[in-house]
Amino acid sequence: MEKHISREHARRIVSEFRSGLSSEVQSEIGEIGFGTLEMMIESALSTQVSTALEETIGDLQQSIERARQRMQESA
Fold first, then answer.
1. Can you give the residue ranges of every domain in the chain?
2. Which residues contact 17 (CB under 8 A, 6 or more apart)?
3. How many helices (H) and strands (E) does the chain have?
4. Could you list the pLDDT tens digit for every one of the 75 residues in the chain?
5. Which is it for the CA torsion 25, 28, 30, 33, positive or negative?
6. CA distance 55 to 59
7. CB burial class (10 A; 0-12, 13-18, 19+) of residue 10?
8. Which residues fall within 8 angstroms of residue 57, CB to CB, at 6 or more apart?
9. What pTM was computed for the model?
């Protein structure tokens, strides 16, 4: 799911960027260039999402551990 979302978002970013360019510049960059840009953006987005998920998991693990400690202390 994450990869699909990143891919679609990357496509929208490249499409928006591309629409601001003249047809001459678009031709000069070519489909391979735009495809490469899309892959680079997708990779960056996926990396950011993965990093955020790892941080969130770490935060949740710490919260669970604190809750367990409180439960043990009150028992």
1. 2-74
2. 37
3. 2, 0
4. 556 788 999 999 999 999 999 999 999 999 999 999 999 999 999 988 889 999 999 999 999 999 999 999 887
5. negative
6. 6
7. buried
8. none
9. 0.70
